[in-house]
Structures are given as C-alpha cells and as structure tokens.
Amino acid sequence: LYAMESTTFSPPGGRDVNLNLLPNVEGLGREFGIKTLLFDGRLSSTIAVFDINLTNQSFFAGVRPNGISYLAPIGRVSQKGFDIDLAYSPIRGLQFVGAYYHGKVRALREDINYLAGVDGDNVPNSYSGQYSLVGRYEFQQGSLKGFNVGAGFTSLIGRLLSSGNYVGGPALVPLGTNKATGANINKTSVIKVETYHELNLFVSYKLNNNWTLRANIENALDEAYVLGAQASSFVDPSLPRTLSVSSTYKF
Description:
Layout: E1 2-10, E2 25-38, E3 43-63, E4 69-88, E5 94-108, E6 121-122, E7 129-138, E8 147-157, E9 160-162, H1 164-167, E10 172-177, E11 184-188, E12 190-192, E13 196-206, E14 211-218, E15 242-249
Antiparallel strand pairs: 1-2, 2-3, 3-4, 4-5, 5-6, 5-7, 7-8, 8-13, 9-12, 10-11, 13-14, 14-15
C-alpha cells in the first residue's frame, strides 16, 4: 500500500489571444494505491485512485490572422479518477500487459459556482477513459525459435476537442453572469470525438546475435480517428493501415 502527495510548478508555456504571457502553473496531486507481485513475479499490478489539481491551465484555441497560434486560459483544472496496470506471464515466453483508466477532468472557476447545478466545465484535449492490451509470444524451441509475434490494442473514450478550432468560431461561449460581480461567465466550447479503436500487429525474427528482422502493421483495423490538434484551417487524421519492414544490425 502507498500514499503520495506532491506539488508541481512549471513556467508559462504560451500566450493568450492578445499575446500576453500566461501565468505560472502550480499543482497539487494526491494518490493512493496498492501494488502487488504474485506467483513468483509472473503477475504484477498497480491500482490507484488520484486527485490532481492544476492552476492556470489553458488549451490551444486557434490561430491569429498573422499566423501566430494562441491559447485560451481556463483557470483551475481538477482531474479525479482511477487507473489499473496489470502485467501477466502465464508461461515462459508469453507476456500480457493491460491498462485501464477512468476519470473526470473539469475546469473549476470560482464564478461558475453562482450558477445552480453547474460545478465545472469540460476541458479540451482531455478524455474520460482508456483501455489497452498488449500481448507478445517468443517461441522457445523448434524451427520457430527466435520468432516473436504480438499485438497491441487500445481504445480512447470520451475525448473532447475545442469546437472553435473546427469552425473558426469562439473558443468560449457565454454561459451566464456572475450575480455578485456582474462579470460574464463563459463555457468552453467543445465537441466529443467518437471512441476509436486501434490495433497494431508485429512479428520479429532474431536471425543471430547481430541481425534482427521486424515487420509491423499499424492501424490494422484501418480506422479513421483524430490523431492530433485540429483547426478550421487544417486537419490531422490518423494514418491508414500501414505496413513497415525493418532490419537491425548490432556490432
């Protein structure tokens, strides 16, 4: 069993739409979990719950007419959830590694509390869940000795992106007015990307102590999904099903 509390600090990493330097980011993280090692080391796992708070967060909000990109500040961000990592080797040469994450990421601004029923705001470039599984087998004897085959699968759930980046509209939309100060309250304009599933396959062969041959098939399901940042002026989709072959020589 373990418990951890940590603080973080990082200098500003960008500028807002008026090219003003964003403030420093400070964080406080708390985590509690359990680590296991069973069956003579063949099964290991980590299960943890966490509560992370970061100040002065921002996200990519668009590009100015002069071509300079800018960020939109969204204040304090809270991330709460749990994750599980599991590694298992049932027999010699066979290995599995799995991971699961579920959490909630919200931007928390003090003025937002003046609206009943609103306790936070969705954060662009965040996601609510992910699971993955990687398997690998290395042949131990016979004519196939030296061959490795494996596959990796991952699924990303509930990913959010700023809708302002897609349609050229505002990164923030009006939500209401602070009843105490009269200041406007804005809500981050986001869209939810469809859940995507990615499957990668590989095979390798160790010819001798020097030569290793390898072949990979990435995105074997040939799915189209969001790979990186998006905007109204460009798109960054996933690569289609891709086959690559390589060889490595060690002196």
